[in-house]
Amino acid sequence: MWRLPGARSALRGVRTAVERHSRAEAATETVAGAMERAVVRCVPSEPKLSLSFALADGSHKNMQRDQSEPLGRALSRIATNALKGHAKAAAAKKSRKNRPNASGGVSCAGPGPEPAAACEPVVKLYYREEAVAEDVLNVDAWQDGAVLQIGDVKYKVERNPPAFTELQLPRYIMAGFPVCPKLGVEFGDPAGSLFRWYKETKPGATEPEGGGPSSLSPSSPSPGWTETGVDERVYTPSNADIGLRLKLHCTPGNGQRFGPSRELESVCPVEAGPGTCTFDHRHLYTKKVTDDALIRTVSYNILADTYAQTEFSRTVLYPYCAPYALELDYRQNLIQKELTGYNADLICLQEVDRNVFTDSLVPALEAFGLEGVFRIKQHEGLATFYRKSKFSLLSQHDIVFHEALQSDPLHKELLEKLALYPSAQERVLQRSSVLQVSVLQSTKDSSQKICVANTHLYWHPKGGYIRLIQMAVALAHIRHVSCDLYPSIPVIFCGDFNSTPSTGMYHFVISGNIPEDHEDWTSNGEEERCNMSLTHFFKLKSACGEPAYTNYVGGFHGCLDYIFIDLNALEVEQVIPLPTHEEVTTHQALPSVSHPSDHLALVCDLKWK
């Protein structure tokens, strides 16, 4: 499609600025070659298109017009807006002339006739140097590369250029922790966009020769900011940045062209980090993404904000934890750094607040090549992330345990057994626990598929029989997905199962059966007894074994989290060591200023057999 040489020059200038760090040269090219831009957003599914441009008086116009409207009406409206803008500018100029001057007199324009009343400017739209007929509909008239003329000013029309729909920096920024902006890009993608980070200039600091803000173009960051040298989406502040605010200059793109740039500044300055964290040593084992033969898998209960920020949590559950270390803004920094440092291919998370998923986890993990899906429970839920270079999402098969138990024929026999024990049945059906099931396909070999399950079972210490029923429902559902819907695909089942290795739930998973006389059928006393025998056909193993604990709080420690794998198809290549007991108890227990959750993440590398 036809484009002006000046527009191409401007785009080359942007690329030069980023790729060669030659901001002055880019500014020269842009100013010399580019005309004003008129941005048109026109989406088939919407009845109106939007048109945005700046008038000669400096005012910015945003217009909404029906796509089915004739062009002539839109041009007439633009002319009216331009006339109003001219009138306002003239009035402002006259007001300045009549304003008292420094000597107390009135400033006059001097003798001469009053200026003639402004006429409505000529407004035309051209495409390939020919005027577009006024009866052409807006949807067809406003083409990319067209030229809008308002009086003597010409605008290059850019139809659906890449644009940010959302752009936000985290509120709390710490030295040593990655800053991952939340981005929404329309008609583009973050990978094709350009980023440049700045930090405040320290008082009295001297700018480096030729590289300071004074050499930047008028649209570049104003004096008071210096370049960090980082032109990637994620920036990790150093200790030298403590006390300084950050600025991000970013240009949305799609690999071929760029849209209007935007800038945003951090609300607060960079703060000092907590020093060594419990996961720092673990990251030494996970510096790189694994090769295609391996699947690095993480399971982690990250402690929902809805539970961490209660008075009960602060005074009873975690009284040893500094109050600021329980705040979400603080913990999110630690969670992001921990998760991104594992370079995982699969991440299964429990106790995920919806806003944490959308505002924190997605931006951070997306920047490191992962994509995620979320399943809400009540106040929080489950999240599963997968590396986009290795996997694509084929389908999702999430369930709510109590709903599936009552409505899915898969569980008819189990429901009939449970119905013999009304008290137990009532308790089971009151629970809101969910199961997240995602089927992934290898991007390298389409015949390789995997079923990834993620859950958080009922928490109460006396709820052993409820967890047994929930696990029976889960395994039956997973079998349906991995055998009936996708025949013979391997299973990875992650979660916080709230069960130690000595419990009936763990015995059931590992051995494939649970006898009707197991003590967990009376875990909440005789009144809720529900004796039954259960079996499943999977051959499962805990990939990370049976560590002494995965949950460590003031009043309890024990192993509650597991990554169960299908032994018929998968084997363990390595288990990333857990933090040492000394590291876990440095601040008495978890969570702490150096660890964001009361659980530890399980991390292991799996490989296909």
From TrEMBL:
It is an enzyme of class 3 (hydrolase). The keyword DNA repair does not apply. It catalyses: Exonucleolytic cleavage of poly(A) to 5'-AMP. Residues 86-114, 202-231 are annotated as: Disordered. Its EC number is 3.1.13.4. The keyword Transit peptide applies. Gene3D superfamilies: Endonuclease/exonuclease/phosphatase. GO terms for molecular function: metal ion binding; poly(A)-specific ribonuclease activity. This is 2',5'-phosphodiesterase 12. It comes from Tursiops truncatus.
